[in-house]
Amino acid sequence: MKKLKKRAVIIIGPGFEDVEGIYPYYRLQEEGFVVDVATANDSEVKGKHGIPLAPTVKIEQLKESEYDAVIVPGGLEGPDRVRQRVEAVAFVRKMFEKGKLVSSICHGPWVLISAGIMKGKKATCYIGMKDDLMNAGAHYTGSPVTIDGNLITSDHPKHVTDWLRETIAYLR
């Protein structure tokens, strides 16, 4: 019997941090994952530096039973748009509750905060939103990458390779 490929979905909004969306998109595929993209407005969005990503699935069609991981990139505007979609927030919460990987970087943890999954967790994020993380009940580490169970967070696009290395290692 052929082993099924692992699946990940990247959820982004307009103005996402380009490297935080594009790098996992290609890197996970290189590792043999099937990678879907869901966007906050269910249409093509551009990163803050102009790189476009088109959705392969609509947010309301996301089912946690179909994925091994959800990736939530940062960029100031992108995660703010994503967390306004109740379906996206609910999906992230369900993924976390089912023990599936939730991996986020920079301002992406705003979505995790909105999903209500940060209380008591060790996590990191962009320094400008550390108060948001702490006010949500998380223990802010300030580290480049923090792993707490099925939650992986990173602080800045300059650590995108470290973040993806840990994300891939977890999924193996």
How is the secondary structure organized here?
Blueprint: E1 7-12, H1 18-30, E2 34-39, E3 45-46, E4 52-53, E5 69-72, H2 77-82, H3 86-97, E6 101-105, H4 109-114, E7 122-123, H5 130-135, E8 139-140, E9 145-148, E10 151-154, H6 160-171
Parallel strand pairs: 1-2, 1-5, 5-6, 6-10, 7-8
Antiparallel strand pairs: 3-4, 9-10
Helix pairs in contact: 1-6
Question: What key attributes describe this structure?
Answer:
six-stranded mixed beta sheet, Rossmann fold, two-stranded antiparallel ribbon, 22% strand, alpha/beta, 172 residues
Entry summary:
By secondary structure, the chain is an alpha/beta fold. The chain has 6 helices and 10 strands. The strands form 3 sheets. Strands 2-1-5-6-10-9 form a 6-stranded mixed sheet, with helices on both faces. A two-stranded antiparallel sheet has the order 3-4. Strands 7-8 form a two-stranded parallel ribbon.
Task: Please characterize this protein's 3D structure.
The chain is an alpha/beta fold and 172 residues long. The protein has one domain: 3-Layer(aba) Sandwich (Rossmann fold), CATH 3.40.50.880. The protein is 32% helix and 22% strand. It has 6 helices and 10 strands; from the N terminus they run E-H-E-E-E-E-H-H-E-H-E-H-E-E-E-H. The strands form 3 sheets. A 6-stranded mixed sheet has the order 2-1-5-6-10-9, sandwiched between helices. Strands 3-4 form a two-stranded antiparallel sheet. A hairpin with a 5-residue loop joins strand 3 and strand 4. Helix 1 runs parallel beside helix 6.
